[in-house]
Design brief:
Elements lengths: L5 H4 L42 H13 L2 H15 L4 E5 L1 E5 L27 H13 L4 E5 L8 H14 L3 E4 L2 H11 L3 H11 L3 E2 L9 H7 L6 H13 L3 E8 L5 H21 L4 E8 L17 H14 L5 E3 L2 H4 L1 H7 L6 E4 L18 H10 L3 E4 L19 H6 L1
Parallel strand pairs: 1-9, 1-10, 2-3, 3-4, 5-6, 6-7, 7-8
Length: 414
């Protein structure tokens, strides 16, 4: 069933940047020679977890609170933080500059190993053309992420950022924590220096990708080559120290238990508290979505698929635990518009991105991208006023002379 309106599907920017040269195999889209056996996941004991008392409190809250009461509490906190009745969204585009990756995350249907015939790296000119298309359609930001490609030098990233700012100026929300970590390995430079140079070259903010579940036992289960949870938090807090805002995410439904999800949330809350205390950058929003197994190495594992009720409970609990986060974003791309609409009454206040292009989730066969008019209708039908925004949640206006949240670059250059 086609979920994208024909007029939007016809846009050239929605054609895949990585056309498939072969059909996905039963073992996953990477065409592995044999299926991976499902490992046994043993959750850590509660008393061994950081913030164990808080985790125990929220576990008890989740168990003792009826769903509608939990949702009502989350909605009340949403109204307290956003009494104006507005639901925001941003017009941007995901640019996946490379799909070559050496991290081999078992949950990913997008990546290709080095030397794979489907591997690619976009040229600066190709990325610039995508930005021009984005701006022509009213986009104010690009979200730029890619695989962990060992063949790209740090100078390639710095050159790309300078090229964008000089020739195709737009807000760059780019490079996950694990991509930044790869840069530190390639350069052998300290983390703070890598972040300083990225910011100086043109990086404006950092997305929350790669968090998955911030519990190392879970990460070892699904992505043993990826950075551990403490390093993910360290990189985001170091970015905040540089004055960069970031977002935080959670991909659940990979075999974890509720204690793992709650540990993820309370660690994010503690991280936000540290960054707010320092008074520089911070997390602007939190986004949760359920794992989509199709075409991944985990597609035949005996994992319960995420349900709509599970998503709504996760959203409501996130709003309550993350009381020092201003914004909770829905994930209509994985959950669909109706479930996202319900989430707006269970703690969420932001509809995320129009996503003029998306390649990672769609590689699993999930494709809920919608035109802007439909997003606005869905928000209005839920009883809210839709409002375009920038990455820092400043409202967008047609009279704006560029992106307010990165206007400091112009002042610095002058």
């Amino acid at each position: 069933m086609t979920r994208i309106a024909p007029e939007q599907r016809a846009l050239p920017i929605l054609s895949s940047v990585s056309p498939r040269l072969r059909d996905p195999t039963p073992e996953g889209s990477m065409g592995l020679g044999k299926p991976l056996a499902q490992p046994v996941y043993v959750p850590p004991a509660l008393e061994t977890r950081p913030h164990s008392d808080e985790i125990a409190h929220w576990l008890q809250t989740l168990e003792a609170t009826p769903f509608l009461e939990l949702a009502g509490r989350a909605d009340a906190l949403r109204r307290q933080k956003h009494p104006e009745g507005v639901v925001s969204y941003i017009v941007d585009r995901n640019i996946n500059y490379t799909n070559t990756c050496i991290t081999d995350c078992k949950f990913c249907a997008f990546y290709r190993r080095p030397k794979d015939e489907e591997g690619y790296v976009l040229s600066y000119a190709e990325i610039g053309a995508k930005i021009d298309e984005t701006r022509a359609l009213g986009g104010v930001q690009i979200l730029m992420q890619g695989g962990h490609n060992p063949y790209l030098s740090f100078d390639w990233y710095l050159g790309l950022l300078r090229y964008i700012k000089e020739r195709h100026p737009i807000h760059v929300h780019g490079f996950s924590a694990s991509e930044v970590e790869l840069m530190t390995k390639v350069t052998k430079l300290p983390l703070n220096e890598v972040l300083r140079q990225l910011k100086e070259a043109g990086l404006d903010s950092i997305p929350g990708a790669g968090a998955e579940i911030l519990v190392d036992a879970v990460r070892d289960f699904i992505a043993p080559k990826k950075i551990d949870s403490s390093r993910w938090l360290e990189i985001h807090e170091a970015a905040h120290e540089q004055g960069l805002h970031t977002t935080a995410t959670m991909m659940y439904g990979v075999g974890e238990v509720w204690a793992d999800r709650i540990e993820h949330l309370v660690r994010l809350r503690a991280s936000q508290e540290r960054s707010l205390r320092r008074g520089k950058g911070h997390y602007t929003a939190f986004i949760a979505w359920s794992f989509q197994p199709t075409h991944t190495e985990m597609q035949d594992w005996a994992l319960p698929h995420g349900t709509g009720m599970d998503y709504l409970r996760t959203t409501a609990l996130s709003r309550l635990v993350l009381d020092n986060f201003d914004n909770i974003q829905v994930s209509y791309v994985t959950q669909g518009p109706k479930m996202a609409q319900l989430a707006l009454r269970m703690g969420a206040n932001d509809f995320g991105s129009l996503m003029l292009e998306e390649n990672v989730v769609s590689a699993t066969g999930i494709d809920f991208i919608m035109p802007e008019a439909e997003i606005r209708r869905i928000i209005q039908d839920a009883g809210f006023a839709p409002q375009r925004r920038y990455q820092d949640y400043t409202p967008w206006s047609e009279s704006d002379a560029g992106c307010p949240c990165c206007s400091w670059r112009g002042r610095a250059a002058a």
